[in-house]
Fold:
Amino acid sequence: MDDSHDRHERHDGDDIDGVLGDGGELGDEAFDDEEFDHGSLEEELREAAAILDPVPAELRQLAVEAYALHDLDARIAELTFDSLVDAIPVRGAVDVPRMLTFHSGGLTVDVEVTAQGLMGQLLPPQPASIEVLHGPRAGAALTADDMGRFTSEAPPAGPFALRLRTGGEVVVTEWLRA
Structure:
């Protein structure tokens, strides 16, 4: 048998001329996009990369911190109160919500983080759009009402920050671990 004939046969002898085009190349019928699941392939590749070549923790942290700077015109809201650090513990209390307060100029952001989600308020009260940031992925979009109140039913996991857009101003809170 010559080489060109071998290219058109499978090992079991089935003819695959319908799959291979002229010259032994794959034709249009080889891969049907509807049958091919790109999402599962991407997930398998991510898993393989995570196992074979994991991203060092220090590099991941630097990336998260650098992502916070993508709004270079944003003001940073400084953490001024964290109940994990600043509050006096109450004996016998369980599942106590974490209370956070951020300040930036004349804006104060009070946030309560629980296992059920988070809720907060802007002071002075004002409407705003708020994003809960979780690293490089787009976060949950929230809206503060006229009283400055906002809620999210998804509790933040891992490092998170809030990006607030009030009028023409952008404010980003410091990054914290949930």
